[in-house]
Amino acid sequence: MDDGPILKSTQVAAQIRSDAIDFVNRINFYFDRWELAKLLNAFADDVVVDHPLGRSVGKHELEHFLQAYEPITLGVRRHNCNHVVDVLDSGDVQVTYYILLIRVAPSSEANALKSAPMEIMEFDQHFPKLISYAMVTDTLVRLPSGHFAVKHKRVENVSEDKVHHF
Prior knowledge:
globular; 6-stranded mixed beta sheet; 6 strands; alpha+beta
Protein backbone atom coordinates (compact mmCIF):
# COMPACT_ATOMS: atom_id res chain seq x y z
CA MET A 1 0.00 0.00 0.00
CA ASP A 2 1.34 3.44 -0.96
CA ASP A 3 1.57 5.76 2.05
CA GLY A 4 1.63 8.95 -0.06
CA PRO A 5 1.97 12.42 1.43
CA ILE A 6 -1.56 12.45 2.88
CA LEU A 7 -0.90 9.44 5.13
CA LYS A 8 2.67 10.48 5.83
CA SER A 9 1.56 13.85 7.18
CA THR A 10 -0.54 12.17 9.88
CA GLN A 11 2.68 10.77 11.38
CA VAL A 12 3.99 14.23 12.31
CA ALA A 13 3.99 14.91 16.05
CA ALA A 14 1.37 17.47 17.05
CA GLN A 15 3.94 19.87 18.55
CA ILE A 16 6.07 19.85 15.39
CA ARG A 17 2.98 20.43 13.24
CA SER A 18 1.79 23.27 15.45
CA ASP A 19 5.21 24.92 15.66
CA ALA A 20 5.76 24.70 11.90
CA ILE A 21 2.35 26.16 11.02
CA ASP A 22 2.74 28.92 13.58
CA PHE A 23 6.18 29.75 12.20
CA VAL A 24 5.13 30.08 8.55
CA ASN A 25 2.07 32.11 9.57
CA ARG A 26 4.19 34.49 11.67
CA ILE A 27 6.33 35.25 8.63
CA ASN A 28 3.22 36.85 7.12
CA PHE A 29 3.12 39.38 9.94
CA TYR A 30 6.72 40.35 9.24
CA PHE A 31 5.73 40.96 5.61
CA ASP A 32 2.54 42.80 6.55
CA ARG A 33 4.37 45.11 8.97
CA TRP A 34 7.47 45.15 6.77
CA GLU A 35 9.86 44.17 9.54
CA LEU A 36 12.80 43.35 7.31
CA ALA A 37 15.25 42.38 10.08
CA LYS A 38 12.77 39.90 11.61
CA LEU A 39 11.86 38.64 8.16
CA LEU A 40 15.49 37.95 7.27
CA ASN A 41 15.99 36.29 10.68
CA ALA A 42 13.32 33.76 9.73
CA PHE A 43 15.58 32.40 6.95
CA ALA A 44 18.68 30.23 7.17
CA ASP A 45 21.96 31.80 6.07
CA ASP A 46 22.12 29.49 3.03
CA VAL A 47 18.42 29.87 2.14
CA VAL A 48 17.23 29.26 -1.41
CA VAL A 49 14.07 31.04 -2.55
CA ASP A 50 12.47 30.04 -5.84
CA HIS A 51 9.90 32.66 -6.76
CA PRO A 52 8.32 33.56 -10.11
CA LEU A 53 10.09 36.94 -9.81
CA GLY A 54 13.50 35.30 -9.42
CA ARG A 55 15.76 32.98 -7.47
CA SER A 56 17.71 34.05 -4.40
CA VAL A 57 20.52 32.06 -2.85
CA GLY A 58 21.71 33.13 0.59
CA LYS A 59 20.52 35.92 2.85
CA HIS A 60 22.40 38.63 0.96
CA GLU A 61 20.57 37.88 -2.31
CA LEU A 62 17.31 37.42 -0.42
CA GLU A 63 17.67 40.84 1.19
CA HIS A 64 18.10 42.46 -2.25
CA PHE A 65 15.11 40.52 -3.58
CA LEU A 66 12.97 41.62 -0.63
CA GLN A 67 13.98 45.27 -0.96
CA ALA A 68 12.83 45.21 -4.59
CA TYR A 69 9.67 43.32 -3.56
CA GLU A 70 8.66 45.75 -0.80
CA PRO A 71 6.63 48.18 -2.95
CA ILE A 72 4.15 45.47 -3.92
CA THR A 73 3.64 44.53 -0.26
CA LEU A 74 2.21 47.93 0.71
CA GLY A 75 -1.49 47.63 1.53
CA VAL A 76 -1.45 43.84 1.18
CA ARG A 77 -2.15 41.21 3.83
CA ARG A 78 -1.21 37.54 3.53
CA HIS A 79 -3.28 34.56 4.61
CA ASN A 80 -1.98 30.99 4.63
CA CYS A 81 -4.40 28.09 4.54
CA ASN A 82 -4.63 24.31 4.11
CA HIS A 83 -1.24 23.58 5.67
CA VAL A 84 0.21 20.12 5.07
CA VAL A 85 3.19 19.28 7.27
CA ASP A 86 5.68 16.48 6.62
CA VAL A 87 8.94 15.49 8.26
CA LEU A 88 11.45 14.65 5.55
CA ASP A 89 13.97 11.82 5.74
CA SER A 90 16.63 14.49 6.42
CA GLY A 91 14.71 15.54 9.56
CA ASP A 92 13.76 18.88 8.02
CA VAL A 93 10.11 19.86 8.22
CA GLN A 94 8.23 20.71 5.04
CA VAL A 95 5.07 22.84 5.10
CA THR A 96 3.02 23.16 1.93
CA TYR A 97 0.14 25.63 1.93
CA TYR A 98 -1.84 28.06 -0.15
CA ILE A 99 -1.21 31.75 0.31
CA LEU A 100 -3.85 34.33 -0.51
CA LEU A 101 -2.81 37.96 -0.88
CA ILE A 102 -5.55 40.43 -0.11
CA ARG A 103 -5.23 44.09 -1.02
CA VAL A 104 -6.72 46.05 1.86
CA ALA A 105 -5.65 49.50 0.66
CA PRO A 106 -4.09 51.09 -2.42
CA SER A 107 -0.28 51.18 -2.14
CA SER A 108 -0.37 54.98 -2.12
CA GLU A 109 -2.62 55.00 0.96
CA ALA A 110 -1.18 52.01 2.80
CA ASN A 111 0.68 54.12 5.40
CA ALA A 112 -2.71 55.13 6.81
CA LEU A 113 -3.08 51.54 8.00
CA LYS A 114 -0.04 52.04 10.22
CA SER A 115 -0.74 55.59 11.37
CA ALA A 116 -4.44 55.04 12.12
CA PRO A 117 -4.80 51.30 12.87
CA MET A 118 -7.96 51.71 14.93
CA GLU A 119 -9.89 53.58 12.25
CA ILE A 120 -12.04 51.98 9.59
CA MET A 121 -10.47 52.83 6.26
CA GLU A 122 -12.80 53.53 3.34
CA PHE A 123 -11.65 53.77 -0.26
CA ASP A 124 -13.31 54.60 -3.58
CA GLN A 125 -12.05 51.30 -5.02
CA HIS A 126 -13.43 47.92 -4.08
CA PHE A 127 -11.28 46.81 -1.15
CA PRO A 128 -10.51 44.43 0.40
CA LYS A 129 -9.85 42.39 -2.73
CA LEU A 130 -8.19 39.05 -3.32
CA ILE A 131 -5.31 39.84 -5.65
CA SER A 132 -3.14 36.75 -5.69
CA TYR A 133 -3.11 33.03 -4.98
CA ALA A 134 -0.09 30.76 -4.88
CA MET A 135 1.06 27.44 -3.52
CA VAL A 136 4.08 27.69 -1.24
CA THR A 137 6.38 24.95 0.00
CA ASP A 138 8.68 25.90 2.87
CA THR A 139 11.39 23.52 3.99
CA LEU A 140 12.31 24.33 7.56
CA VAL A 141 15.47 23.48 9.42
CA ARG A 142 15.99 23.63 13.19
CA LEU A 143 18.67 26.05 14.29
CA PRO A 144 20.94 25.25 17.27
CA SER A 145 18.67 27.57 19.29
CA GLY A 146 15.77 25.19 18.59
CA HIS A 147 13.94 27.73 16.43
CA PHE A 148 12.91 27.06 12.85
CA ALA A 149 14.41 28.83 9.85
CA VAL A 150 13.33 28.60 6.23
CA LYS A 151 15.96 26.64 4.32
CA HIS A 152 14.08 26.58 1.00
CA LYS A 153 10.98 28.46 -0.11
CA ARG A 154 9.23 27.61 -3.36
CA VAL A 155 6.36 29.78 -4.62
CA GLU A 156 4.46 28.31 -7.56
CA ASN A 157 1.11 28.16 -9.35
CA VAL A 158 0.72 31.92 -8.96
CA SER A 159 -2.45 33.53 -10.22
CA GLU A 160 -2.92 37.26 -9.77
CA ASP A 161 -5.20 40.17 -10.53
CA LYS A 162 -2.85 42.65 -12.18
CA VAL A 163 -5.43 45.45 -12.08
CA HIS A 164 -5.36 45.61 -8.28
CA HIS A 165 -1.88 44.30 -7.61
CA PHE A 166 -0.32 47.73 -6.94
